[in-house]
Amino acid sequence: MAPWGGVAMLVVTGLAIIVGWGWVWAGLTRRTRVVAMERLFPYSPTPVIPQIQAIIWPVVPVVGCLWIAVGAYSAQTIIGHETLFERTIIIFLFALVALIAAWIMFGQSLPTWMYPGWRAERYYRTHPKVAEKELNARVARRFVGVRA
Question: What is the average pLDDT score of the chain?
Fold first, then answer.
């Protein structure tokens, strides 16, 4: 039973990463919208370490999938099945992380929908009064008097 605990840990960690990223990305609560708009790249006027955030945020869901793929690889290894498919997926996901990072480091931009705050920005553009109430004045100023 001990090896299956490791598999469960890998899969649950991957799912937690994806769900956590999705929660911030979707901006379902007031707190996640405020954090995305006031602190995170590319929407914040003063993001913390924007060059790193530009790379980190798009690769987070890929890393979550990578944890799940490693869990699948471990499960196949435990039961003694061939792992070619799982190894291929793991290599592909690592290559995707490297490709996204290289793309951004060489000055190319990714679509804004790949970053947390995309949904929050859409929400505040359609609800400027809520933006005034929830966001600090400097950030809320972008949404006052604007209709999407």
Answer: 91
